[in-house]
Every structure is written in C-alpha cells, then in structure tokens.
Amino acid sequence: MAKSVDEFNKKRLRSSNITVVISIALVLFLLGLMGLILINAQKYSDYIKEQLVVNAYFDENYDAKDSVKIAKLEEETFKKVQTLAPVKKATYISRSMAAKEAKKSMGIDSDALFEENIFPSSIEVALKPEYVDPAKIDEAIKVIKSVPGIIDVKNDSTLMVDVYNNLSRILKWILGFSVLFLVLAVVLINNSIRLKIFSKRFIIKTMQLVGAKRRFILKPFIIEAIILGAIGSVIGLLALGGVWYYFTSQIGSAFIQDNNQYFWLVILVLGVGIFISVLSTIFATWRFLKSNVDDLYYS
C-alpha cells in the first residue's frame, strides 16, 4: 500500500514538474519571439531610414577649360562630405551619370532631346538613422551645405517625416506588445510555480514544525526552481530557434547579421526564466512558512 502511495506521489510530482516546464517554455517562446521581432524591426527601421537620401549639388556653371580643376575640387568636397557626422553613406554622381539616370527615368534612348551635361554633378547622401528625425534633418542639411563647393542641398522632407513617424509608431506598438508579453510571462510562470508549491504546502509546514530553519526549507525548492527554469528556458529557446530558422529560410533572408543581439536575447530569456521561477518559488514558499496550520486547508 505504501509503495503504491509513493508511486502515486512520484507520478504527481513528475506531472507537476512537466506542467511547470511546459508553461515556462511556452511563455518564454512567445517572449523571445517578440524580442526577435523587436530587434529586427529596429534594424529594418534603420535600413529604411538610410534609404531616404538628400542630394547635395555642385555649381553647374563653369568654363569647360576648367573642367579638370573643377573635377579635383569636387573630389575634395566629396571626401569632406563623407567625413561629416550626419553622413552614413555618400555617392558621387557625375554630370554624365545624372544624364543617364534622367534618360532612364524618362524612358529616352536618344541624346537628341537634350544635351548630356545639362544636369549638375551632385552627391547623394544617406543620413544616419538618428538624423532622419524631423527635428534633426535641418541641422544635417545645414552641415552638408556648409561644405565649400556645395551650393544647394535638396530633400523630400515631407516623405522623410511621414516615413519617420510611421516607423516610430510601429516600433512603439511592438515595444508595447513586448512589455505586455513580459508581464504575462511573469504572471503565468508565477501561477504555475504557486500551484506546484501549493501541492507541497503540508510538507513545508511539517518540516517547519519539526524544527527545520526557513533557509533549510527554501534551499531545495530554490534549486528545483533553477533547474526547472533553466530546462523550460532551453526548450523555449530551441523551439524559438527552430521557428525562426524555418521562417528566415522560407523568405531567403537572415534579417540582421549582428549575432551579438541574438546572444543577449538568449541570455535575457534564460535569465528571465530562471529569475521568475526562483522569485515565485521564494514568495510562494514564504507564504506557507508564515501561515498557520489551519490556514493550509483554506489557502
């Protein structure tokens, strides 16, 4: 009879541990997924911002005999523009390149409709993401315009403002959902741990009544919480890695290439799983340590 009771208790304990691990794994999988989306959304946002360019123009009026001298001055100006703080990338566009682009955009193959050098040479400047902010774009343009040799800087400010505002709005929503998932992770893992500790409330109280110190009683529960939190986190991360690998292989893109951010996300998910498990275990166990024996029947 005693053997069957022991086997029943072992099965119940095993079932309880599996439930806790699965709960932790599912919650952390969703939390990690939101983290991946947030990281990639930020990188993709920066990529889109870098595609928004301003055009810095050189003087188009000069004598043909000074073309060599002008070309040298434009080269020096281009090098100076590349070193400016707001500049992420700069591309030099000569007069002939500008003419080719114009003909291509208008669908013209012939040179008969306009002279080849009617367009001024220019520099196409991709700004750093932080300078695409509507509050800083004017500052960036002033810096570029101050370079000797640049006579005008043009940009589609309306498009930049619209893109910036839309991207910022999307990132705020994603960040909000990430915080929400973090709160849900805390609540759900905490509830799973509390139910597990609740099933052992009589054991906890019995140990206390026979003289065991609170630290002694807490120690095995904390060790178990660390193990269960780590196992649940690893399972959640493995599932997350599998889903993300399948997704990126299907679309043919690995999104961001910065493995540092993936590494810190793994550490964060692992840390959250273990930390919440341990903290929930301490609070749940402490609650029964402070309660009376009679309260155990009504908890």
TrEMBL record:
Belongs to the ABC-4 integral membrane protein family. FtsX subfamily. Pfam families: FtsX, FtsX_ECD. It is found in: Cell inner membrane; Cell membrane. GO terms for cellular component: plasma membrane. Residues 177-292 form the ABC3 transporter permease C-terminal domain. It is a multi-pass membrane protein. Required for cell division and gliding motility. It comes from the Bacteria. The chain crosses the membrane at residues 20-39, 170-193, 221-247, 262-289. Its main location: membrane. One of its GO terms (biological process) is cell division. Residues 54-153 form the FtsX extracellular domain. Keywords: Cell cycle, Cell division, Cell inner membrane, Cell membrane, Membrane, Transmembrane, Transmembrane helix. It comes from Chryseobacterium artocarpi. This is Cell division protein FtsX.
